[in-house]
Write a structure and sequence with these properties.
The structure holds two protein chains of two kinds. By secondary structure, chain A is an all-alpha fold. Chain A folds into two domains: 43 residues, no CATH class; 204 residues, Orthogonal Bundle (MetI-like fold). In chain A, 81% of the residues lie in helices and 0% in strands. Chain A is built from ten helices and no strands. The two termini of chain A are 32 Å apart. Chain B is globular and about 70 Å long. The chains are: A mainly alpha, B mainly alpha. At the A-B interface, α1, α4, α5, α8 and α9 of A face α1, α5, α6, α7 and α9 of B.
Chain lengths: 267, 258
């Protein structure tokens, strides 16, 4: 197993190097072979971007921190409410029949489209970052936690019943531990989404944050800062996903990660 | 007969809740609760009236967004599927490629849109570019799972027939991956609509649902903004249902459809 794991890591590493090489080659072709006048803004050399990041990292990190922390608060709140709704739906039939159709429909509609509307309603940029990140986290977490509660085998429930387990004990000892991988499947979908939502609010008219840097660089013509901000925000999305995946490994060591359908409402 | 009331109940609860929600909204319950002024949060009847008045324009914008979303989704899903097929053919190296590709899934749309703005001169090209990137990963990962998670011994059976790789692919792997492909398509159609709308927030073009939402909110035409959101949601649901209907016809044999 460790050998397979190591060779798998090696393969990923080789791929990463290949992607970086392809990027550099693409930038070289654009700039020095085709002499594209826009080369530096279309696809600058990766090492140039790295240099910009190295030069501007304090301000980039500060902006990313503002955006990321609000996304994290909203993500936490949304996950909490989503989880509570899932518990409520699993306890009460009526609650389930009311909320379930809306949960299903919510996965079909472009929720991120609502961001500007919420922004105009809430007005305060920090509050709307949190509200939108929470709102976007809420649905996938509620839906996948509920499906976790529902996937508990009937025999296990019956066993608990035969012990005359009370409701809280049933949840604490059976349903909650069983559904943790499902919860994480939802969290993994929601984490990059909440970062995207937070950046989107930045760009709709905030005063600070990585999205503002992106927007200023876009219209102000500072193309090196633009690409540095793009890479920073991409890194934020990837980081949020990896953080949750790592948390799952630490918190749920007894179970392999759920083979959920990957993707979700993509970031 | 005994089942009918049950089914009716299943429909009635959410319907009553939805109507109550709309009524509370209409009668100013949310305005009182959250301190919104009427001009900030238009009531449902006003949204519907605005939508009815501006239907041709809204539908035109909807068409622009939906066609961009569908084109991008088809391109992105095809690329994703091709990557999955390659990864199945060359598992040792292909799997790493899949992981790298799935990292694209975490790149925020808001960062992709301005990049595509620079690569493509037209709003439509930019939209299709963003949607393509956003839909690749989900298809690649799901299709790979469908192509490689075969029933136990089915591969051995094919080998015992001395089946060629091509035959294994078309007779065993391809039918086996259809359910996962449809799962990916259902994920992708929603992401495609989101990506198309969000990319329009930043595009230079002056059409599409995203532009409509942003432009109307800037002009403080809240009702029109909400009307656009309504259209976008209806379009999203309709597209999803179309894919689900195709799925039902295409994989009638699969247990998930019974």
């Amino acid at each position: 197993m460790p050998v397979a794991e190591r060779s798998r890591r090696l393969v990923v590493l080789v791929w990463l190097v290949a992607v970086i090489a392809a990027w550099e080659l693409g930038a070289f072709l654009l700039a020095d072979v085709f002499h594209d006048a826009m080369a530096a803004s279309k696809l600058p050399f990766l090492h140039d971007i790295a240099a910009t990041i190295a030069k501007n990292w304090p301000s980039l990190l500060e902006a990313a921190g503002v955006t990321f922390s609000k996304a994290a608060i909203g993500f936490g709140l949304g996950a909490l409410f989503g989880y509570l709704l899932a518990v409520l739906m699993s306890v009460s039939r009526i609650a389930e029949s009311i909320a379930f159709p809306y949960l299903i429909v919510s996965q079909m509609i472009p929720v991120l489209g609502l961001a500007p509307i919420i922004f105009t309603l809430v007005r305060d940029m920090n509050a709307s970052r949190i509200v939108i990140a929470a709102y976007i986290t809420f649905f996938p977490v509620a839906a996948s936690t509920l499906s976790g509660f529902k996937s508990v085998d009937e025999e296990k429930r019956q066993l608990m019943r035969s012990y005359a387990a009370t409701m809280p004990v049933l949840y604490l000892k059976l349903l909650v531990p069983f559904s943790v991988p499902y919860l994480f499947a939802g969290l993994k979908i929601a984490a990059p989404l909440s970062v995207t939502a937070s950046i989107l609010v930045d760009m709709l008219g905030s005063k600070n944050g990585i999205g503002v840097k992106l927007l200023y660089a876009l219209y102000g013509g500072a193309k090196d800062i633009f690409w540095a901000s793009v890479l920073t925000s991409a890194a934020m999305g990837v980081f949020s996903y990896l953080f949750i995946a790592q948390a799952e490994k630490v918190l749920v060591p007894w179970r392999k990660s759920l083979p959920s359908s990957a993707g979700g409402q993509s970031a | 007969m005994g089942k009918v009331p049950d089914r009716l109940k299943k429909f009635l609860w959410p319907a009553v809740f939805g109507l109550g929600f709309l009524l509370a909204w209409q009668l100013g319950g949310f305005h009182a609760l959250l301190g919104f002024k009427p001009f900030q949060l238009p009531v449902p009847t006003e949204i519907v009236r605005t939508l009815a008045e501006n239907m041709p324009k809204a539908l035109g914008d909807c068409f622009v967004t939906v066609s961009g979303a569908i084109a991008g989704m088809l391109i992105g899903s095809s690329i994703g599927f091709a990557v999955a097929a390659l990864a199945t053919a060359f598992p040792a190296w292909g799997y790493g490629g899949l992981i790298v590709l799935s990292a694209f899934n975490a790149v925020p749309i808001v960062a992709l849109s301005p990049i595509m703005n620079r690569w493509f001169p037209t709003g439509m090209g930019q939209k299709i570019g963003v949607v393509t990137v956003v839909t690749m990963a989900a298809m690649a990962i799901n299709a790979y799972r469908g192509l490689s998670d075969l029933k136990p011994f089915s591969l051995d059976l094919m080998r015992s027939y001395a089946a060629r790789k091509r035959t294994v692919f078309f007779s065993l792997r391809l039918p086996n991956c259809l359910p996962s492909v449809f799962t990916a398509l259902k994920i992708n159609i929603t992401s495609a609509m989101i990506a198309a709308i969000v990319s329009e927030y930043f595009a230079s073009s002056t059409s599409g649902l995203g532009f409509g939402i942003k432009d109307n909110l800037r002009k403080a035409e809240m009702a029109m903004g909400w009307a656009y959101i309504t259209i976008a949601s209806v379009a999203g649901i309709a597209l999803f249902l179309v894919i689900a209907a195709i799925e039902r016809r295409a994989i009638r044999w699969h247990p998930s459809q019974r």
